[in-house]
Design a protein that fits this description.
The complex is a heterodimer of chains A (about 150) and B (about 190). Chain A is α/β, with parallel strands linked by helices. Helix content of chain A is about 50%, strand content about 15%. Chain A has a four-stranded parallel sheet, sandwiched between helices. The radius of gyration of chain A is 15 Å and the shape is globular. The mean pLDDT of chain A is about 90. With about 190 residues, chain B is of the alpha/beta class. Chain B is about 50% helix and about 10% strand. In chain B, strand 4, helix 6 and strand 5 form a beta-alpha-beta unit. Chain B is globular. The chains are: A alpha/beta (about 150), B alpha/beta (about 190). At the A-B interface, loops of A face loops of B.
Chain lengths: ~150, ~190
Amino acid sequence: MFKEMLHILRGSILWAALKARLQLNHRKVVIVLVDENKTLDYYAMVHLSNFMDRKFADEAIILFDNKATGEMAGSVRAAANKKLYYLPEKLVELLYDYYSFYKFSDKVVFTYTERPRDNLLGRALKETGVNEEDAVCLGLYHLRRVPETGDR
Amino acid sequence: MIKYFERQLKELDDSLHSLDSAEFERLVSEAVNTLNNGCKVVVSGLGKNVPICEKFVGSMVSMGLDAYFLHTNSAVHGDMGLVHDGDLVIILTKSGETSESVYLARLLKKRNVNLWLLTFERESTLTREIPNRIILELKHEGDLWNIMPNNSTTMNLILLQGLAMMIAREMKLELDQFKRNHPGGHIGEVLENV
């Protein structure tokens, strides 16, 4: 129990540090690309501008834990005003554990499909007609519809 | 005609998604603590927000929860007497600049109360002065000139009703507590044999 509490505390310290370092505020959204599902990560970038509109944001911070994901994120033109930062996988996991414990912001989105254990996104993608674009727009970004690409 | 309503529903939906739910949860939690400590929740507004506040108070008291409406204008003419130490007071003001609201807020800050702000402006006198705040974005009021209190008051109603329902959930209220206060009308008849 103590170990878990310490882990959550470390997560909260990490979030506080990220907020200060990245100067996060109500005009910024944070997308954490975790590379569990590359197609999902891709559509998270394709519809980023729609999410920014949804959250009244004018800048996006993209966190990624490997070079290929970072390159993909940088290459998607549809994603407007964004800044990319590398965050080691262990720290991404730590941040997500804290987020799973306490949803500290509505402007942060992780692209995990299998974590935590009750995350049904992975199953929905495998076992139903829901595809990655639907999952991003309706599940992660809560856009209420799947916009045409570039439709803002 | 239906398009008008669809547009307004989208406005409300967009506005709702600007809510900082962590802050809202904190408001719920502090309101529950306030009530558990034997104090009350007070909502204060003026103009078109008056019936919104009254609806919230009506919902709260029908569940047996202590809530009062404080008219922002009348407050400084004696009505502030209903505010006691330990109460949680929510001031509604769209701009955060209305002089009566600013005046009241400054007076309440001198008291031992938990002051919250419900507003639509991120930069205003009251957002600077009240650290506990729920700030919503709103693109359009839905009237001809984007000036009338229309969608903003609807959003206030949605937020405050949500607050009442979340408080009830957190406090694990039983239907009996509502039934006791609502013997009248069709609802009373429905609940009679429950």
